[in-house]
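Researcher: Here's the sequence for the chain we discussed earlier.
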Amino acid sequence: MKQLKEFTIPFVGLKLGKHQFNFTIGQSFFDVFEYDEFNNTNVEVTLDFNKKSTMLELLFKIDGTVNVNCDLTNEPFNQYIENELLLVVNFGQEFNDDNEDLLILPHGEYEISVEQYIYEAIVLAVPSKLIHPGIEDGTLESDVFKKLEELSPQANKKIKEVDPRWNKLKELLKDK
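Model: Thanks. This is the structure I predict for it:
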């Protein structure tokens, strides 16, 4: 994967204290990651960057919509997402990202690339089961949904006439 320059923050030139960075994430961002679960993306990312003397604190705030396909009907719809991700960056002898909340950069580093963290925050914000809002409120007009309703077992369907021999057997259970 190629590194995206607009998501690289040179922190050496920043003063101590809080800084804010804003990113607009479109579908081309996910094309770089070769992630094809989204049809379209419109997400705003706000990065609150707090530079301290010995470490960095990064708070990613995700807010927007991703266009995905419904798991039941395969109809596309816009799924609203929001998420927050806190990342603490310390400095050490060598690069280490084993811990998901802590990143260790080697001494002498002067910039940090945040696209991987933005990608993960967005993907993790999407619910595991995607259901079109029209299914829940009954407004979805879909051939697949109509077929599902037609084939689903319903309590109010007519029960077929039961063979009278079964009724005799049921009486045996009641006699106990």
